[in-house]
Write a structure and sequence with these properties.
Layout lengths: L33 E7 L10 H7 L3 E6 L17 E5 L6 E2 L9 E7 L2 H4 L2 H4 L8 E3 L21 H13 L1 H21 L5
Parallel strand pairs: 1-2, 1-5, 3-5, 3-6, 4-6
Helix pairs in contact: 1-4, 4-5
């Protein structure tokens, strides 16, 4: 088995090789919806990560790191009456985000990591256990992916956020985030020697 070569000295923001850095393409998008990204610490150095790009692009966003030894994450401080807060994850009890009719701005708590890591959020963070969950109900039509998708509903974190924000904030926000994802995908494919 051939071991995949790791990117040496990647850009600390977009995580791509310096020659393919896309930081100049990261928009600054102002929204009423708030993104709270809860990322597993091992995900921070993965060059295929896209969740951190969403945080860089969305002005109204925060990032929280979980899974670090001797560092217990408490997310109770982000549960505010200023927002209707939802955990964005496709659990069996999740409501389709299209059906939301919020009476105030929405906060999306998004778990970022591999599928196993992301699925543990509600168990590892008891302060979130009673929050409602929402999901997107769309099929991934893409032919190229940053990582192998195991289901037809599988998306990268940035893609999923873009689709959710399309329902909450409109098409223009969705398009900007998807363009950023496409830039990351294209640069990654070039690095893998795959023609676009």
């Amino acid at each position: 088995m051939i071991r995949k070569r790791k990117t040496k000295n990647p850009c600390v923001t977009c995580l791509l090789h310096q020659d393919r850095c896309i930081c100049h393409l990261i928009p600054k998008i102002i929204t009423s919806t708030k993104l709270s990204l809860v990322i597993h610490h091992r995900e921070l150095k993965r060059t295929t990560n896209t969740g951190t790009l969403a945080v860089h692009a969305l002005v109204n966003s925060e990032i929280f790191i979980r899974g670090q030894e001797n560092n217990i994450l408490d997310l109770s401080k982000i549960l505010s009456d200023d927002y209707e807060t939802y955990v964005f994850f496709p659990s069996e009890d999740a409501q389709d985000i299209e059906s939301l009719k919020p009476s105030k701005p929405v906060q999306l708590i998004v778990s970022d990591g591999n599928w196993r890591q992301a699925g543990k959020l509600h168990r590892r963070q008891p302060e979130l256990k009673n929050l409602p969950r929402v999901c997107i109900n769309e099929i991934n039509q893409g032919t190229q992916h940053l990582r192998k998708e195991h289901t037809s509903h599988g998306f990268s974190t940035l893609q999923a956020i873009a689709l959710a924000y399309g329902h909450l904030e409109g098409q223009a926000v969705k398009d900007q985030l998807l363009q950023l994802y496409q830039a990351k995908l294209s640069a990654t494919m070039i690095g893998r020697g795959i023609k676009q």
